[in-house]
Amino acid sequence: MAGNVQIESDFIIGGHPDARVTPNFRLKELYRSNGKVRVHRELVAGLQVLRDNLAASIEIDPRRPAALEKPSDDGLYVVITAEDIERLQKEAMKLLRQGYFSRCVADNGQLYVEMHDPSLLPRISPKLAFDCGVKVTAAFETSGDPYQQVTGNFDKAGLSFGPIQCNLKTGTLQELFRYFRGEDESRLRRCFDDPEDYLAFWKVLDGSRKKAVAWADGLSLGSAKHRFAQPWRGYLQAVGREPLFRQVMLRYAYDKYGKLLMSALAFLHGVSPVEISNLRCLAALYDMGVQQGSLKKAHTAIKRRVAAEQPEDEFALTRIAVEERAKKASPRWRADCLSRRLCILDRQPVSVTLDGKRARRSNRSSYLLRNSEVKGLDRYLVG
From what superkingdom does this record's organism come (predicted)? Predict the structure, then answer.
């Protein structure tokens, strides 16, 4: 959420009219007919998810519903419409079942949607929570369609690809493509126009990581080497457009980083009785795993701080963990690491200065970070 939006107790109450509250909604669209604004951020998040799923514009009516029996408290409901009202209602009902809304009522070409009591938000499924975590991390790593993101050797990782930017240096890109090949090699081959290029790419993937990074460095473009040369960029984007491989990427993220999340939770459970179950805390720990790996390098520092500070809630405990792990990163990236994690925990950009470096990371998908408990995550990760 933009920094020039005023929030009080999770209600949006003001700011610049043109400020983007979510990717598709500006603050001025939330004004009531009296010219004031007071709407809960969880309701706006639900509207954005609805807009994403509908893939079409949604209009907000600023008037209070006159005919509806017992409308919710101000700030917890909205009246909307779209060109295809039947499809809008259908998509809204799906989100009602996922806990985004508590009531959806169609009336005279419009749809009344209401959120749950903010103090009683329903728990969400672990699958939905994990998908949200992947998307939030992808928004830090990529722009545009995260599944088609191809990045050159700007960070010395060689070539990075996809929503979690699997790369040649760590070997994660090699692993990911072996997953693809095992799923459907004929479909993977079709993403490469030239069969010889397909074989050449596998020669790179099956070789040493050092040689693979050197190969990618030679094909990285621009002064900062962010871009990657054709035809390779086009081949990888073709892979990213394949629905099957998108599913494989999500499974890979689960297999690779779900285990790191489980390990982090087990360690923190061993040093504190505080249970971590809020989506925002879990997403911060997941993002840490993707960017930095395990908590192991910070175990001693975390134990020391937990013993000294005795955190009373999961946000305080998670903050200790991500702060101490960020301090173990390369000095160049410490502020960036911590700013990312705090942006997730606070759901807004947070400025951080560490070792003379300043970072202020924002995330266009922060609206996905519901302030809800995740149910049964431990069983989901184990099973």
Answer: Bacteria
Residue 335 and residue 271 in one domain: yes
The one-letter amino acid code at 334 reads: R
How confident is the model over 246-273, as a mean pLDDT? 91
The answer on 178 and 112 residing in a single domain is: no
Tokens encoding 113? 């949607």
**Domain membership of residue 258 as a residue range:** 252-382
Residue 62 lies in a domain: yes
111 and 167 in one domain?
no
Number of domains forming the structure of the chain: 3
Residue 144 belongs to some domain of the structure: no
pLDDT band per the 50, 70, 90 thresholds, residue 64: confident
